[in-house]
Amino acid sequence: MSLHARDDFVAVKPPLHQSVGYVIVVVVGLIVAALMIYATRVLKKTVGEDNEKTEMFMTANRSVRTGLTASAVVSSWLWSTAMLGSSLVGYTGGLAGPFWFAAGCSPMIVFFALLGISAKRKIPEAHTLLEIVRIRYGTTAHIVYMVLCLINNIVACANMLLGASAAITALTGMHIIAATFLLPLGVAIYTFVGGIKATFLTDYFHTFIILIILCYFSVKVWTLEEVGSVGHLYDLIKAASARNPISGNHEGSYLTMTSKNSIMFGILHICANFGLVVMDTSFFIKAFSASPKAVVPGYIIGGISYFAIPWAIGTLASATVLGLEDNPIFPTYPRRMSSTEISGGLVLPYFAITIAGKGGAVAMVIATFMAVTSTLSAQVIAVSSILSFDVYRAYFNRHATDMEVIRWSHYGVVGFALFAAAFSTALHYGGVDLGWTLYMLGVLTCPGIFPTTFLIMWRGQSRAAAIVSPVLGMATGIAVWLGSAYALHGEVSVASTGGIAPCVYGTVASAFSPILYSVVISFVGGLQNYDWADFRKEKLAFEVDATLVSEEELAVEHNDPEKIKQLKRWGRIATYWTIATFLGHWVIWPLPMYAAKYIFGKVFFSAWLIIAIIWLWGTLFVVGFFPLIDGRAQIIAVVRGMLGKKPVVEAPTTRSSGASSTEADGIKTSGHSVSEVNVVSKLEA
């Protein structure tokens, strides 16, 4: 199914004045930026987290705990696309759409726990993925993967901005180009000052607000007289299936998992998202920023929690819109939504307007703003890290100081924020929207999945294979994508290349052909048999304050056999969870339902939706309250410091990659960071 034909339609009058859009996008954005800047200064004053030091700016001294890591993982995937896109595929494919959207996200987030802990164990001083590439394969490979990562970041940002700006424009009447350029403004400011720790804090704040709004929607919808109950909503969807059956669904029903378009989207989505995760430098930065014992549980908890967001809100919003589309309370009545509105991601905004009027519109603008700025922050810090570490430090100044690296990071923050807005504007004027980028992005993001995984997990991949296979994979994917579009639709255009079938074929070719290329080239040219110990020969870390680094991180960097053994155990746990998550979300749960051609009954539909909503509220706890519980020691330290009762911390010692062992430095802890142990001891005193 293609959504991208531009049809004539009468635009819905925005329920809010455009001034509301500017207030939220500009004023609220600047307020949030000011709060994050203030928070980073308080952390520097009270617990010594100095963002003028590179290790703190880029990796938060590798000490972020499980709760904040899990929150950041959820935030990294809580794109505006996750809310808008899951509702879009629910509208076009029925209840199967949001499920496959969610199932296309959780497995690879959990998989990254394995990739992250493996990278952390083998090269604990790294800041970015590309540093690992350069050390193992040299300059040519480094440049190839730099291009792949930048393509990933650019496409991801365009996807976010196109959907978010369209939604904000529909709700407020704000000019879409103004929204596109102003959305990154606050992001650039607080990321410029606070670095990765500001990103973690903003991730937490934004995601907490978004989950509160989504949970509010999950309650508010039942107060609407036209909906009333889950059972009545079921009746509304059943009637919608009779009025407008879906081609490719069993009996044309919205109430079935037997949906050809939805399962094709599921295949497309899981491949594309593997590319977005593996080739997104921000995921590696967050893994390197987490303490060793927080990486695996943080990513597993975050990945499982995230599943509820697209599943619950996509199901609820699309079901309500489908059920009430022929009701006078719906914004587009008496007509159905046009393909342009659907592809622009307006199913969820129209849902919010329908159930809560102007208040729902305001909540939707805030949620969209929070989602796009939070995820943009991660993308901006990722690109700035590439510019500072993988361009400036690698090729122009190998002995760069903290100040010089951070200066180039600042250039990257500002430059990429402007470029992302300009690129998204160009796509908009070229007729490209959220639906098109949602379908095709995997063609460009997937070629590096397996070569990058082999980089960290397989000794045998040769240098030639690492360089050539992703390039051939991208060429194969683009050729299959464009060729399929022409074969199926008779032309190569925005409309034909945005069809789901060409995008599925191109994405699968782009993702899996590099396996063949890499294995064949490696065996033909000779396996490398890389020694993982070689990763540690090049010192990458800057000097940092040892009182702010966990005992585990120090032990890993000093190659403590016991700690390395523990990390290998975490790796096994991550492997088991990856397999279980994939089988659960992709095989055991959905495929029997697809094969059974089952159409949901009222009781089953009620259970389906209620479980999704309960899961969503559980995610609210994980995102909103778990980080507070997990980080209570540092919170107490900050509060006491602000009250003038700053705990007495031993004189800070510094370490570099060649520092002596933890015990020799006089640092003895029991699973907590040194600063937390000192804080707790003073509180007990």
Q: What's the topology here?
A:
Layout: H1 18-47, H2 54-59, H3 66-77, H4 80-93, H5 96-103, H6 106-122, H7 129-137, H8 139-172, H9 176-220, H10 230-243, H11 260-278, H12 281-289, H13 292-306, H14 308-324, H15 339-343, H16 347-396, H17 402-429, H18 434-445, H19 449-457, H20 463-489, H21 494-497, H22 500-525, E1 544-545, H23 551-557, H24 561-588, H25 590-596, H26 602-624, H27 626-630, H28 632-642, E2 654-655, H29 674-684
Antiparallel strand pairs: 1-2
Helix pairs in contact: 1-8, 1-9, 1-16, 1-28, 3-9, 3-13, 4-5, 4-8, 4-14, 4-16, 5-11, 5-14, 6-11, 6-12, 6-13, 6-24, 7-8, 8-9, 8-16, 8-17, 8-18, 8-20, 9-14, 9-16, 9-17, 9-26, 10-14, 10-26, 11-18, 11-22, 12-16, 13-24, 13-26, 14-16, 14-26, 16-17, 18-22, 19-20, 20-22, 28-29
